[in-house]
Specification:
The chain is built from eleven helices and ten strands. It is of the alpha/beta class and 328 residues long. Strand 5, helix 6 and strand 6 form a beta-alpha-beta unit. Helix 2 packs across helix 9, helix 2 packs antiparallel against helix 10 and helix 4 packs parallel to helix 11. The chain is globular and about 65 Å long. It starts with a helix and ends in a 6-residue tail after the last helix.
């Protein structure tokens, strides 16, 4: 009798598993048959939002549907990310994440309502936004090496601006300080735009700003750019040498990538990844992204994206811990 009951239970479990598998396969085969909600965890009009709209339009063409941008800003991207993590795993809610949400956020925010690894399905890396090292035109330094030497001769007398505690701008500067071995005081602002006038006037000694917002001030002669934070010269500002030429291995990029909720079916992941890779390879999209100061990523797999984020998160966590950085 027990043997019969066990067989009945086993057969029932097997049928249930087959039904789940069949349901998932059916879901993936019919995907997408309605618009896709793309959560952008930052305000409308910002770089992430403009990137989402540029890429989303082309991805919609590739997928045969519309990607509807849904801005859910707040808490450094945690509010929108939380909504994406808790959405149904059907492919109709995606998240455009960044370095701030999935690399830095877990290190500087003590109580995130989700786990950035466990609660998301990585889909693909789609772009990078480099930063540039800016100094006043009155600065005695004309190269990265000269600025480091200048800072070492004036320990504690120089300062750097950031867009706030625990932001990518602060961490980029702290990474520079750690590798260069210099002591420079942090002056947080509520956004780099507010720091630019003080940098121009010489009240601030250095700022690591995004390329598209910083370069216009360089090209009109109001600021001097010493280098770019990519390992190689950026096609967006080929005249600038990498800081890594002076500090080997130095790199800081704001990456952009797609995630879905955990347990997103593999077929759906593959479809979205393919559409994203095709979109970032489109010449029209490349041209629009260049104007935003964003370099399209090299087409890759979800696995490659996950590994890249893991390495990036570990790097920033070490800086956060070593330099005792908080978001307060």
């Amino acid at each position: 009798m027990k043997r019969i009951q066990f067989l009945q239970f086993f057969q029932g479990a097997a049928v249930a598993l087959l039904c789940v598998a069949a349901s998932s396969a059916s879901l993936a085969q019919g995907y997408p048959n309605k618009p896709i909600r793309l959560i952008v965890p930052f305000p409308a009009g910002g770089a992430t939002d403009l990137f989402a709209r540029t890429l989303g339009q082309k991805m919609g063409e590739k997928l045969g549907t519309q990607l509807i941008i849904d801005n859910k800003p707040g808490a450094g991207g945690a509010i929108g990310s939380d909504q994406a993590a808790k959405a149904p795993a059907d492919g109709y809610t995606l998240l455009l994440a960044t370095t701030s949400t999935h690399s830095i956020g877990p290190a500087v925010m003590q109580k995130l309502p989700y786990d950035t690894v466990r609660d998301f399905t990585p889909i693909g890396h789609v772009g990078d936004a480099p930063s540039i090292m800016l100094v006043p035109v009155t600065s005695p330094a004309k190269t990265v090496r000269e600025w480091i030497d200048y800072a070492k001769k004036n320990p504690g007398k120089l300062n750097y601006a950031s867009s706030g505690n625990g932001t990518i701008v602060q961490l980029t500067a702290e990474l520079f300080k750690a590798q260069a071995g210099v002591f420079v005081t942090h002056i947080p602002y509520k956004g780099t735009a507010l720091a630019i006038p003080d940098l121009i006037s010489g009240k601030i000694d250095v700022l690591f700003d995004s390329l598209p917002t910083g370069m216009p001030h360089v090209r009109d002669g109001r600021l001097r750019a010493l280098g770019v934070t990519t390992l190689k010269r950026s096609p967006l500002a080929p005249e600038l040498p990498p800081i890594a030429d002076t500090l080997p291995g130095y790199e800081s990029n704001t990456w952009f990538g797609f995630y879905g909720p955990k347990n997103l079916p593999a077929d759906i992941v593959a479809r979205v990844n393919k559409a994203a890779n095709e979109a970032i390879a489109d010449p029209e999209v490349k041209d629009k992204l260049a104007r935003l100061g964003i370099e399209p990523a090299v087409a890759g797999t979800p696995e490659q994206f996950a590994k890249m984020v893991a390495v990036d998160a570990a790097k920033w966590k070490k800086i956060v811990v070593d330099r005792k950085i908080t978001n307060e």
